[in-house]
Structures are given as structure tokens and as C-alpha cells.
Amino acid sequence: MKPYVLIVEDEDALATLLEYNFGKEGFETALAMDGEEALLLASERTPDLILLDWMLPKLSGVEVCRRLRRRKETSKTPVIMLTARSDETDRITGLDFGADDYMIKPFSMPELFARTRALMRRAKPSLLEDIIRIGDIEVDSQAFRVKRDGELIHLGPTEFRLLDHFARHPGRVFSREQLLDAVWGRDVYVEARTVDVHIGRLRKALKRPGKSDPIRTVRSAGYAFEGVE
Amino acid sequence: MKPYVLIVEDEDALATLLEYNFGKEGFETALAMDGEEALLLASERTPDLILLDWMLPKLSGVEVCRRLRRRKETSKTPVIMLTARSDETDRITGLDFGADDYMIKPFSMPELFARTRALMRRAKPSLLEDIIRIGDIEVDSQAFRVKRDGELIHLGPTEFRLLDHFARHPGRVFSREQLLDAVWGRDVYVEARTVDVHIGRLRKALKRPGKSDPIRTVRSAGYAFEGVE
DNA sequence: GAGGTCCGTGACAAGTTTGTGAAAGAAACA
DNA sequence: TGTTTCTTTCACAAACTTGTCACGGACCTC
């Protein structure tokens, strides 16, 4: 489950360079060549970070950023503006209308990665870590293992992805449909109730006599995972 | 309540300048002259943002940042490093060990404020989440929870939506029809008196022996929700 | 203070949502 | 290929919600 970066850049050379480098660095990427496409792609799948060119066809970077901020899903997504301009006024404007950082072209890749990691760590610390700890449970999504007190817990692949998803969004309530999208995949037809069965199995696997259930059922809404207090 | 900024800077002139400017800009400030004092002040009251000099007596800025990140309260507090060095390696190190941004001295105040605002805008809502507080009651519409004094209050879905609606419009009187529209939905046929029953159930759930009823009945008009004084 | 209107609430039946064991395929593995 | 594990669906029970009603009390008007 790689972090997903949306690159919005109309210069072919730079776009390719960015895609190549981010791919190599372990990110999943998507490329939008203009502002409208950027908004479309961002709504199709919420990116974990957006690289946004200042000058764009159709919609300017400023306007794209403003609209992204208005949408609930992307209101907190980190945005790094890429700008050729260098005067201070523009920079401030860039930050003030909702971008989180900016880079002035030409910039160095290592620095861009550093800023990317810094912003991602803030927005979703769990994205960059291989091992996610939640409560007393350790989820190692690289090694596909789950541990508690050093004890391995065996899970089926689907249960694992389900737990992994929950662990990355602790406390948040997901509807069955959202879980199907995130864990099973966007275009798989599976009964919503199937989620219940897997939740049940996950619960059984994580259950411990004394402790309370880390998975909370939110009646008529879905499920949420919360570390045991 | 003003945002609280911790300034960690050992150069007298710059420290004073920062305190003065941030004060003028509407921030509450505290000043630490070395790394140890910084950690002490940060633990006394969690800042909303930290300005951290790279070179410090006793503990370096890097080390201070690292330790701040280890503490639960400050693990997500935005940190802006102030550095005199300008070579790229240092910058990256700075961002990679946990700082959110950096400024190279000498920097411009307007730009520092822009970055400050950008980071705070990101950090603040995450601290407050989508929790509405009304009186002593907390309504978390993201997590579908209601709390008072840390105690969870269980509500059925309809009661929850009802409370949520009230919490978003404190003090306002709603007719039964308005409540049906807002909570049940525009096109649901339900008796107006049903609202009464749910109000009753909500009251029972929120009731506390000593305190007064937060829901006010407005005879022949409807109901209003008011925090308890 | 009589009569009418409005409101609070316990009871309850109907409806909805969730938990779960079992069964039948699918898929992985060896 | 045969075995084992995993996934999906189904069916049913259990748990929980909900809308309505009926009754009694509160309040208002004249």
C-alpha cells in the first residue's frame, strides 16, 4: 500500500521526471496535465499528496488548490506548489490560499522528497511507516504479519488488508461500501454483508479474554477500529 | 484564545524581534533561550507552533525537535526550524528528523507568517477534529460518538442525528416539521408527534440528576437545545 | 375552573441491523 | 491432482430501533 501522489504538471519533461523519481522512491503516482483533470483525478481517488504546478491550462494552480480545499476529502491533503515565479508576494499568496509548501523551479529532487516526507508524516504518519502500531497490535504491511506481545497472529489475506486499512485510519468510521472500495477494490462486486463476516473473523483473531473488542460497530453506519485503552 | 507560539532562539536581537512581531500579529508567545528550557516550556503548555533555532546552547535544535516528536503532546506540533546554514544536506536532515519547515536566516517576517499560518491551518483542525462542544457535551459526528466528562453516551442513530442537528444550531427553536425535514429527511412520512418521542429519548440519554434539561420545550412552537450553564 | 390544546412518556409491535455457523465454491499450494 | 486454506453467500437468531398510540398531566383561554 504505497502512498499515492497526484502530479499536476503540464510540462512534459518535468512531469516525466517527477513520475519517474516518485515511482522509484516507492510512491504510486498519477499525472494530470491540466487543472480540470487534476480535480477529476483527485476526486476519483483521494491522493496522499499533491504536487501542483502554478501555471496550468484551463484552471490555474491557485484555483485548483482552492477547490481542493473546499472538498471534504481533500481539505487536508498536503499540497506542494511548483512555481517558476520567485517573488515573495506570490509565495505568500500561494501558502495563504491553502497550499502547504512550495518549490521554486528548478528544484532538487532530494529536497522535494524531504518536503514530501515531512508533509506526509504530518498528514498521515502511518503512510510512511512499515510497521503500524495500534494499541498493543503491530501491523507490518511489508512483511504481511501481525503481532501482539511478540506473538504472531494469523490472518487471511482479506482480514489482513482490512486490519491494515483500519490501522492506517484509527478511530474513523467506515461504511461497508467504503471498506469494500478500500479493501476489496473499487470494481469488485461483493455483497456488503460480506464485510460483516470478515469483521467477525478479524474480531475472533484479535480477541483476548480480558480486553475489550478493538473493533467498534457503529449501528447503521459501519465499523471503526480503535486501540484498546 | 490566541494561538500559542514557542520561540526558541538564543540570539537576543532576533528573539526580541520575533516576540514583538508575533505578539503584534495576534499570537501569544513564550521565549526559550536554550534547548533544555525549550523542552521544559513545551511540556508546561503544549504550543500550537514552535520556532526552533538550529544552533542552540545545551541541546541542538535537531535534538530538541527529536525529543519533542517523541512526546505524545508535541508529536504533531508544527515546528519551523530557523537556520543560518544554507547547504541542502542540512535542510533535508532538518525536515527528515521531524521539522515541518525551515527558514534560512535572514528571513522576511511576512514569509514566516505565511508559513506559520499554513502549518497551523493544517495542525489545528486535526487537534480539534470535527467535534462540536455544546455545554458539557461533545458531539463527534465523524466518529459517531457523544461524550460528557469522557463518558460515552449511547444514542440511537436518530437520536444522534437529532442531537447533531441541535448542536450545530445551538439555541435556535425548531418546529417539529423543521426537525422532521432536517433529521428524518424531506420526503419521509412520519407523524409530527414522533419527534416528541425522540426528544424524550434524547432527554433521557442526556439527563443528569443535578443539572437542568438542555432541551427546552417551546410550547406550540417546537424545541431548542441549549448548553447547560 | 371548565374545556380545550399541547406535551411527556411507557408500552409495544413491526421493522431494521448485526453476529455467526454452515455450506459451497475458489484459489492456493504442493 | 489432491489437499488445504480462504472467500462468499445464505439463513436464522439475537440485538437494537423506531413509529405509533393511549393516557395523563401541564398549560392556556375565557
UniProtKB/TrEMBL annotation, chains A, B:
Domain Response regulatory: from-to ranges: 4-120
In-chain residues carrying the UniProt-annotated modification 4-aspartylphosphate: 53
InterPro entries for this protein: CheY-like_superfamily, OmpR/PhoB-type_DNA-bd, Sig_transdc_resp-reg_C-effctor, Sig_transdc_resp-reg_PhoB, Sig_transdc_resp-reg_receiver, WalR-like, WH-like_DNA-bd_sf
Domain OmpR/PhoB-type: 129-227
Pfam families: Response_reg, Trans_reg_C
Chief place where the protein resides: cytoplasm
Sample GO molecular function, one term: DNA binding
SUPFAM superfamilies (UniProt xref): C-terminal effector domain of the bipartite response regulators, CheY-like
Gene3D superfamilies referenced in this protein's UniProt entry, alphabetically: 3.40.50.2300, 6.10.250.690, Winged helix-like DNA-binding domain superfamily/Winged helix DNA-binding domain
PANTHER family to which the protein is assigned, alphabetical: PHOSPHATE REGULON TRANSCRIPTIONAL REGULATORY PROTEIN PHOB, REGULATOR OF RPOS
Official protein name in the record: Phosphate regulon transcriptional regulatory protein PhoB
Organism whose genome encodes this protein: Algimonas ampicilliniresistens
